[in-house]
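re the bet — no i am not wrong, look at it urself. input seq straight from the record:
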Amino acid sequence: MTLQDFPALDASLNGTAAVLLTAGFVFIKRKNTTAHRACMLGAFAVSTVFLACYLYYHLTTGARTPFGGTGAIRTIYYTMLISHILLAIVIVPLILRTLTLALKGNYKRHRAWARWTFPLWYYVSVTGVLVYFFLYQWWPTSS
């Protein structure tokens, strides 16, 4: 694996987190707490690995990838990117709090926090994949 593989790896980790979050949501709606817990812990683990890989890549390379799209798609991309970055910062303490409440067995407060944490975490995971596709697949710049 080379450093050039990291953006695709990061997108895959974000996509995996989104799938696990979706499955966890379905399981809790079906009252399958064991499967829900496994999916959510998996999503946390995958997101943690993502964060480590993302930081390693950017601290090692200092890479900045310009967006190649023009016109309206450029506005759409940067709106999505800014919201993704801001919510990615906000979501970390929310995830940690929500997870801690669940692990302590405080399910009433866990559910209250999860009502905010889940959709934000899901958004960050999905838009992370979209950022990758915007930058590397749909509108790559010639480097």
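see?? The chain has one domain: 3-138. told u. also Residues 72-103 form the longest helix (32 residues). so pay up
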